[in-house]
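Preliminary data (for renewal application), zinc ion complex.
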Amino acid sequence: MDKKFLEKMEKTLVTQKKALIADLISSNDDLKAVIKNEEPGDLADIAGEDIDRKMLEAKGIAELNRLKSIESAITRIKQGHYGSCIKCGKPIPKDRLEALPFALMCVECKTLDERKNA
Ligand SMILES: [Zn+2]
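Predicted structure:
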């Protein structure tokens, strides 16, 4: 995986993470109340660090899984494992990553996984 591509994907993922968090906050009054107590500043930056994940989980917020996937993808970029399937270890095609930057599994494993959870 070349460095330029990884840098681009990391930027995309960070942007998506911020957008997702901003979205969560604007659509959820409980979260708004939590954030209001924080120092003013970049909402997404504050939220990213300080929102209680357990609270999000307790509220059954559907986007939490996507947020987790985005964060694991960012972690995997930092660790140098980005772009390999977490299940079978095969490389995930670039066009799949471009379409779905937080994809952690190749198409085959993802399909199997979804079938299992269905
Ligand atoms: Zn796989």
